[in-house]
Design brief:
This protein has helices spanning 3-7, 35-42, 46-58, 90-99, 104-142, 147-171, 188-197, 199-203, 214-221, 235-249, 256-270, 284-296, 302-314; strands at 9-14, 21-27, 30-32, 67-76, 79-88, 225-226, 229-230, 275-276, 279-280. The protein is of the alpha+beta class and 315 residues long. The chain folds into three domains: 3-102; 115-171; 188-314, Four Helix Bundle (Hemerythrin (Met), subunit A) (Up-down Bundle), CATH 1.20.120. The longest helix is centred in the middle third of the chain and has 39 residues, at 104-142. It starts with a helix and ends with a helix. This is Virulence protein. Pfam families: Fic (PF02661), Virulence_RhuM (PF13310).
Amino acid sequence: MTTEELKQQIELYESADHTVHLDVKVDQDTVWLTQQQMALLFGRDVTTIRRHIKNAQTEELQGLPTSANFALVHNEGDRIVERQVAHYNLDMILSVGYRVKSKEGVYFRRWANSVLKQHLIEGYTINRQRLDALRTVVKVLQRSSEPEIAGTAEILNQYLPSLELLNEYDTGEILSPKGDESHWRLTYEDAMSFVRSMPFYTQSDLFGRERNGSFQGIVTGLYQTFSGEELYRSMQCKAANLLYQIVKDHPFSDGNKRCAAALFIYFLDRNGILRDGDKLLVEGNALTAMTLMIALSAPTEKDTMIALVENFLTR
């Protein structure tokens, strides 16, 4: 199975009471449902679902890509017709589930996360096979006496150390690097001020609203000490734990992944390692991938997730 085939699959969803069965499209690292499917999932009529989608698009999900058109084939009389139908991603599905106060939304979220995690693992397996093949190609090219061919191998070879992280992840051998000392200290007041400055904050009554002082505990915990030494000794370690804990501990009523990713970048920038001239240490796609990877990880994989982010920041 190719990576492209993995990205475009149909998974069968069955509700906890076995009364709802849905063919769920998996594409672009998320799951997709139509309005009609959401109506079945949450036990509401399509008009209600449509109203909640419209409200979510103007409030907590404003400006975010939450819909896409996919072709659906069905019979109309004697004809087989293919039509483009609007589908909505997991963010919208969960938002609608929250608005209609359906317990089915929680069950669907757990199922979707399990499906997406499996797709992520299978995708890594395919990429690992390609990485092994790339190593072989590099070795062969390096033997060439032609400068142009050998030069191509040298360029490819520069990327292999970073790609090696995939292999270390698969084998469970990834370790935390030494890292660098922090030059700037993040305070709770500074962090909350940054969250409030995000455009989502004024667009929703839930985004960035702290729950029970848990976010303050995360920020102050980055600098906790034992026997006079910081537990999170390097700047990379602090950044990785900041990202991980906000994503997994849900200190905010809404927007935890967005707040985590933004604060992660803010922390790196204030510590002076986000940019090397015009080049960013963490590009947008990489930031999204790291955040999603952490969100889908199991609690037992915490140390591996944090070490993976640390290594990404130091290689």
